[in-house]
## 1
Amino acid sequence: MTTTVPAPVQAAPTLGAIPASAAWRPGDPIGKRKFARIGDLVLESGEHVPDAVLAYQTWGTLAPGKDNAVYIAHALTGDADAASWWGTLIGPGRAIDTDRLFVVCANVIGGCQGSTGPASPAPDGMPWGSRFPWPTIRDLVEAERRLADILGIDRWRLIAGPSMGGMRALEWAVTHPERVGAIAVMGTTAATTAEQLAWGAPQMAAIQADPKFRGGDYYDAADGDGPHVGLGIARQIAHITYRSEAELASRFGREVQADGRFAVASYLEHHGEKLARRFDANTYLRLVNAINSHDVGRGRGGVAAALARFAGPALVVAVDSDRLYPEANARELDSGLAGSHGIAWVHSGVGHDGFLVESEQFNAHVRAFERELS
C-alpha cells in the first residue's frame, strides 16, 4: 500500500439526489437521508472513485455563524442514521443536544447504506464488485472533508465517534487541526495493533472462502444468494471481541440448549445472521482493510508527533473490560493529545460494546465534555 497521497482530481462537488426517488427537498423532516456528490475521489492507492456520493443525515439547525456543527463518525457496520444506533446520546436535551447543535453523520465511502460502494454502479453501469478500490481511513476522512465543504462547515465544534469512528475523528484532528474544535473518541486506538490486525484476518478469510463470494462479483446471484454464511462467520468472530470473557461466562457458561448446541454458539450465530441480512460482504472487507490501514503516525514521524498536531480539547473514553481496544490504547491517546486530561472510564463487564450498553455512564462523560466547549 502506497503512503503517498496523489493530488485530488478537481471536480465540483454538489448536493445531489441519488436516487431521484429519494431526493431531499427543503422542508423535509430532519434526519431524512440526503445525498452529496463529492466529485472524483482519488485514493491513497492512486485509484479513484468517479462521481462519488455520500449518503448523510442531519439533525438540528445550523447556526448563522456555523459554529454549532457536530460530526458523528460511525463504527464498522454503522450508517448515517446516528439517531438510530446512538439514540441515547443524540436528540433534544440529550448529551449531543439537537436543540442547540447541528449534527451530521454520513455513511462512509465504500459503504452499503447509500454511499458509493462495491454494490454501486461503476461507470460501465455494472456493480463495482471486486473492482471497487480499497480505501484507507484517510480516504474516508477526505470524503467527509468534501461533505463538510458542501455543507459550508469550515470548522466542526466537535467530531465524535466510537471504534472506527474514533479512528476517523483522530485522523480529522491530525490532518485538519484548523477545522476541528474538539474530538471525543471512544474505544479506539491511534494505530491498529498486531493483535487487532490478527482479529481482522480470519474475518476477511471467512468471507473470501465462502464459495458464493465468487471473488467479490456476486451481485447477479439469483435471489441475492451471496456470501451470507461467510459474512455471518466474520461477524461471529468480531462479536467475540466486542464482548468480554467474563460476560460470556456469566451469561452462557457451558449451558447446552435443547438442540444439543452450546448456548454461546447459538448467540454468536444469531448476531452473524442479523448482520448478514443488512450488510454487504464487499463493504465489510473494505472497511476491515481500512481499519487495518489506520495509523495516524504513518508518514508523520510516528504517533506521538502526529497527535501533537492537535491541541484542542479531547475526550478519551475507554471501557475497562474492552479487550479489542484495551487500556494501553487509551493511555497512548491520553498522553499524546495535549487537550486530554485523563481517561474517562466506563466501568462495565460487557467489553467493547460497553459504550453502547452503559449509556448512562458514557453519556454523562460526553455531556460534561460538550458543555465545557467554548
Note: The domain at 14-192+295-372 is CATH 3.40.50.1820 (Rossmann fold).
## 2
Amino acid sequence: MPQIARMLRLNLLTLTILISLWSTGHTATDAISYQGRLTMADGNPVSNGQHSIQFAIYDDSLAGQQLWSETATIVTLNGLFTHLLGTINPLPDELFKNPDRLYLQVVFEEESIEPRSILTGAPTAGVASDLIVTDHNDTLVIETDALQRRLSLFDQKGQEQVKLQGSGAGGQVVLNNQDGTTGISLHGGLNGDESVVLPDSSVSSSEIIDETGYVTWINVNPVTMVTLEMTDLINLEIETPADGYIVLEGKCYVELSGTTGPNVALVQIDASEGGGSQFPYYTLAGLGGYVNTNESYFPVYVTRVYWRQAGVHYFRMEGRANNAAPALARSWDHILTAVFYPTSYGVVSKVSTTPDGHPNATPHDIKDPQDPDGRSRFYQMDMRYFERRSKDTTDRSNK
C-alpha cells in the first residue's frame, strides 16, 4: 500500500507561497506550492511517472466541512513531486479570511493519507487583493496601499505586537507591550513629542553620544575686588564629549561704597586666570559719583562663547575694582553656567585682538573704554571656521 511522506513545513510553505505569488503577480491565494514524497509500505518510492492525487481543504482535522478540493495528475521522480494547489480549481479569496484552522487532506490513488496537514498562518497572510510581492536584486518587496492597509504581527493570544502603517504624513512603526499598550512608536511624518515615543529610562547617559549638556555652579560668599587686578569670583569645570561650542553665562550683584567720587567695578568671563579686561566681553557696574558713601547695589550679567575640542575645560567669572581706596567694591551671589552644544545652526561670531588665522576675519577700529591708549583694531569672525578646521585636521589624522 503506497504511503506519502509529506515535506510540508511552515518555512517551506511560506517560501513556496512567495514563489507562486511572484509567478502570478496577483494575490497570495492564487496558488500554494505543495511538495511531497510518495513511498511504498517498505519505504521504497512509488514508480516514476504519472499518478492521480486529490487535495482537499477542511475546517476540521478529522471530519468537518470540505471548503475546497481538486484532483490532479502528478509526475513523480524517485517519489518526489510538486503541485500548485489552486491551479485546477482556483482557491476562493474568502478561504483564508480569519479561519480558526484549515487542514489539507491528501488522497493518493484512492488511499487517504492520515493525518491531515494543518495550514498555518502562511497562506492566510496574503488575502488582500492589492498585495504584490516581488523580488528585486535579492530584496523582497511587499507592495500594497499603505493608506488603506497595515501590516500587523500578533502573539499567540491574538494581541497585536507590531504594527506597520502609512498615512498622508509618513510611515508609522509601533511596537506594543504584552498588554497591548504602546512601547515604542516612530512616526516618520510628525514633529515634536509625538514623532518618537520611548519608554521611561529607555536611554541611559552612557548610550547618548555628543549630546547637549551643562554645568552650573554657585558661590554666595562675598568677594572683595582688588583695584586694577582681576580676582576670581567663581570657577567652573566642564568636560565635553566632543568638539563643540561652550556658552557661558554669569550673574552676580556688585556692592560699591566708601566714596562720593567715582567707583566702578568690572566683571567678565575668562578662561585664564588674571590678565586684563577683554573687550567687548566685560560688564561695568557703578557710577561717576554718589550722594553719600553708603552702599549702592548693581546687578551684573555677563556671557561669552568659546569653541573647544573634546576634553576638560576651566572657566571663571572674574572682577576688579577700577578705583582705589577709600572706594570699596564687593560682589556676591555669583552663578556661572556652561552649556555645551556639539554643533551650530548659524553664524557664531567672535571678537578678538588677533585674527587667529581666520581667513575672513573682519577688522574693526574700536576704542576699548578700559584701555583708551591701547590697541584699537579688533577682528570679528565666524567661529564655525575653527569647527571646520578642527574637523578637517581630525579627518586627515584618521586617514
Note: Residues 10-24 form the longest helix (15 residues).
## 3
Amino acid sequence: MKLFLKIFLWAVIIIVLISLIPYIISPAYEFDDPSPFKGSSLYNPYKDIQNNNWYKANLHSHSDVWGNLADGRSSTPEAIHKVYSDMDYDIIGISNYMNLNVTDSHKDKLFPVYEHGFGIWKNHYLVVGADDISLIDFVYYPTLNNKQFLINLLKTENNLISIVHPWMRNAVSLNDVAYLDNYDCIEICRYSRTSVEYVDKALSSGKSIKLIANDDSHNINDQDEIGKGLTIINSKSKSYDDLISAVRQGSAVSVNLIKSGFNSFELKNYNITRLPNLIRFDVTGDSISLAFDSVAAKIKFIGQDGVMKSIVPNTYEAAYTFKNDDSYIRVETEFSSNAIYYLNPVYRYDSLYSKTYTAKINYPLSVIYYVLWISGIIIVVLIYKRKIYRKNNL
C-alpha cells in the first residue's frame, strides 16, 4: 500500500511539473494601450463580392473521438457530413479537441480544423487550416501573457485563429480582447448564445478582427444544437486557399438562427437553403450603402463601444455616412424569420499594411519571470531534499 501511494504521489508530482512547463516558458509581453481606429480611408471587407459565390460553412462541430470522453456523443464524421449536407452547407469543420479529423471520405466539404485547449478555464481557440496539433496549453488559469504566447504559438501564415466562447468561465475577458493580438476572428455566434460585446470591445480597441458563427455541436441528433449559427463566405471558389483568403479579408456574413424558429431538421433543410444573401456593399468616400435580396425587418448600424448609430426598418437596402467620431461601423440585419446577420466592420485606416497594435516580447521582464520560476523550483527541491535528509538521519 505504501509503495502504491508513493508511486501515485510521484505520478501526481510529475504531472504537475509537466503542466507547469508552458507557464515557465511563456514570456512577458508589452501591449499597446487600446485605441480606436484612425485614418482618412475606410476599409471595405466586401469590395469583391460576387452574388453567385456564397458558400455556407460550419467550422465548429465535434465527433466521436477520445472514446467519447470529449463529449462527441454519437456524432460520427459521416453523420455530421450528411446532416450538414442536407441543410445545403458547402464547408463542414469537424473541430475535435486536440484532434485533427483524418477521415478520407467527404474531403470535398470537410475542412482541416481543430479546437485547441484542454485547460480547466476553457481558454479555447479554433485553428482552421492546421497542419498539426500543438500539445502546449495552460491547464490552470492563464494570464494575458500566457494567452498571447499561445496565440502566437498556434498562428501561422496559412491558418486562421478564432477565439471561441470567450464568455465561458470567463476564459477570455473583455479586457483581454482589448489587448490580445495576432488572432483573426471572434466567434460571435454559437448555438447557445452570442459574443457581441466581445466583438465590439475588440473593434473599439482598434483590433481589425473578423467575425464567424458556428454551431459548436456535440450531438448531431439534437436539433437544438444544429443549424443555429453559420458563416456564409463569399469566395472565388470552394478551394481552401480562396475560402481562407475571403474570411481573412472579411468577405463573410455571420448568421444567428438561435431564435429563428427552424426547430426541426425538416424546417432547417427547407429554410437554410433559402436564407437571404447580401447582394451589394459599397463604400464610397465616407458613405456605406448595402442591399439584400430580401426585405429586412431592421438594418442596424453599430459603432464605437457598441453604440447604435442608426436603424432602418422594412427595407432591402440602407445607407450610412461616417461621422467624425466614428472609428468603425458594423451592420446587424434582422429578418422576419428572426435570423440575424452580423456583417464585418468597415473601419478607418491610414495603411492596410501596418497593424494597429503588435504585442512585443518584454525581454527584461521575461528574464525576471524565468529567474523567479527557476528560483522557485530550486527552493522546492532544496526543501524536499532537506526533508528527506532529516528523515534519514533521525
Note: The chain is about 25% helix and 25% strand.
